[in-house]
């Protein structure tokens, strides 16, 4: 019998503490149990990470109590947390917290219970009820309401009869009704009728893909399948039937989708096929909903989980399949510690828990295609749209030529204006895509050139027209537009740059009478705004939508025949080695929104760099061509997938002290790693100042992950940073801001 428990205490310390297990708790303390322990002068909660027979230390304190009877973390999940902690250089306790949502972990988290009232078998009938009616009419009303034998929640019963809980309790005392708490599910799905769907007859390519995935589910050979299918090629139908196959073998499934495409529309497609066996997990759930969904999964009541990033940790038993839709999406990367990538965690969980993994995308990440070409993943390709609907035509408009021709910098080229008019005349719909929100990116003085800038973040303020305010999108600073230029005092500030609001205004002027809506994170911060805007668009109440990248994802509108990309260059000019890949992905995704009905779609891409490889490859819808060119660039500069890349960001309020200490760290790092590991920097980060901090970066590229991570893990624990200097290690970083 183990008498010692190693415990990760809720403190974000990267170490475990030994505690004695008192005899009376021995049967209850297991690996994964949640426990209360004395810590210093206070009491803390923690998780049992391992059991042991003896400890190095003699003076151990004892565990105070155990929470619940079942360990909260299943064995396999603890193992996964451990792996995540090591791989991403994060404290184990933080990794455990990530695996287990707060709504479940907190000991005060409970199921929601409501009192439920039913008739006792010998409740009055006939004459006895007549007597009661005369003597206590309110009590008789309660009996009448319960007559059908179904029972009612106390609150509903009181409301229906116009009585009070006192009336019901009086009946309970007489033994005429019984009342007991009943757990009610807090259901995140909107309550409306969803028509069930049947599996479709698959196209030949879909059938091939499904066969491969089923083989993977049954025998893990191959363990990972990459499903490379153009938008509208029917990937989702393959997911649905693969999940059905897993269910037939009594196994569960997880479907990951990027947070912004986790729309009711997406969830409903799964719900329509699998009904109540679906559970939903994402960040917009209320605590109670999250708690209940988690327990439905843990208990096995729900067998399929659909959710965003963190759903990869859902406690599904006998997991047979994890689907990662849009596997290339940067939003699968968590931007706080542990900085895990849910796609990569899915592959690792598959390996640990013996389940198949299906990665789907129209534009797979270079890493994934490389894994496929190296034979690590199997590939299934869906080259055509369902029913052989044609891919849209792509047209590139050179805005430099446009500017020369018209003598001014226009937001809309003549080509785009004409194409839009045509759509309006024909009653078809258009989407305009812009990678910016707000009205204008910045406020520039026409006389002295002064730019309204956030002093704390070295970034131009964004001008928001609705409320005439300037906002910093980094630190959230929010202020009134000054009456005059702070530089020279002239009252006219000019709006330069371009935002969704400004495009919306221009459209209203260009196309009088057109019904325009805007979709960006500013708008959708209001609850249900997203659904309302999309609903209006789908039902034809609006003609044009202007939006940011959130409209590039997974939406399906048959009547959209024109897509305009207002400025394709924005994502190209980011200081990031993945800028080209992102632009290619974005343009391809956006194009996928056009022509999903009977009319062939047309995409117009406005750009100042028409010959950029990413733009050209997107125009030809040529993934392989893009891959071949881009992979050479990555090979030459030893970027992923030819290396593992860690981005170390150090920040501090004193610039000199920051450079000195980051420099010292880089020196130690260089001397500790093997000679084939490249350490660059420290250099000022692209975002050189944020929230009053200076920021510098050290970029590490290493052929092997292990060689790099071991050193980083040791150094980030042992290196003595001066007070006020903060260091963040991001393994496999996807954003280099
Ligand atoms: P993707 O996920 O690749 O973008 P979808 O799964 O959304 O593609 O499929 C696009 C459309 O084609 C959907 O409306 C879907 O219902 C339909 N579809 C998919 N597979 C078939 C099929 N085998 N036969 C007929 N229609 C299909
Ligand atoms: Zn700021």
Percent in strands: 15-25%
What count of domains describes the coordinates?
5
The molecules bound to the chains, other than polymers, are:
adenosine-5'-diphosphate, zinc ion
Question: In percent, how helical is the residue content?
Answer: 25-40%
Please give the count of helices: 23
Could you give a short account of the major beta sheet? 7 strands, parallel
CATH C-level category of the largest domain: Alpha Beta
CATH topology of the largest domain: Rossmann fold
CATH H level of the largest domain: which superfamily?
P-loop containing nucleotide triphosphate hydrolases
Q: What class would the helix/strand composition place it in?
A: alpha/beta
**What is the topology, as strand order, of the major beta sheet?**
11-12-10-13-14-9-15
Instruction: Give me the count of strands.
Output: 32
- Give the name of the CATH architecture of the largest domain: 3-Layer(aba) Sandwich
- Beginning-to-end CA distance, first to last residue: 51 Å
Mean pLDDT: 84
Low-confidence parts: none
**Rg measurement, Å:** 30 Å
Outline type: globular
Structure description:
This protein is α/β, with parallel strands linked by helices. The strands form eight sheets. A seven-stranded parallel sheet has the order 11-12-10-13-14-9-15, sandwiched between helices. Strands 16-28-27-17-26-25 form a six-stranded parallel sheet, sandwiched between helices. The protein has a five-stranded antiparallel sheet with strand order 2-1-4-3-5. Helix 5 (137-146) crosses helix 6 (154-161). The chain starts with a strand and ends in a 6-residue tail after the last strand. The mean pLDDT is 84. Bound molecules: adenosine-5'-diphosphate and zinc ion (ZN). Zinc ion binds at residues 454, 456-457, 472, 474-475, 477. Residues 454, 456-457, 472, 474-475, 477 line the site of zinc ion.
